[in-house]
Amino acid sequence: MANIAPKITYKDVVYIGVRDVEIQEEFLLKRHRVKNFTIADIRKRSVERIAIETIQALDHCDLIYVSFDVDVLDSAISKGTGTPVSNGLTEREAGNLLSRLLTSDKVCCFEMVEINPSLDDKGNKMGEMAFEILEGLVNQL
Question: What's the pTM?
């Protein structure tokens, strides 16, 4: 029992494009200095640069698990997610970001989450967009 310890620590996490956080979440992110690239960072420095800095920040990790929450996409594109928020990524920015992240040999898993067609006021636009992003990534492999 002496070897019980967290397998993932705050330094093992990088957030990209998070816009809607609760006060308690924001407190923990700041307290533990979680790497957090804002939409403003992405627009100022480019998705390519953010992807490079993300991979560098996780260099100490043996494996990288990429979880893409479609909430990061701009709500003007689609509402087909649990928490649509304005000023998010475009489909192109998201695709380019993921494409760059997935070039790392350390990436062992990729998931896309929070797609909810029943909330989509534009048919299934979010689902279709998520599929197009995913299709582009698979074709890249």
Answer: 0.88
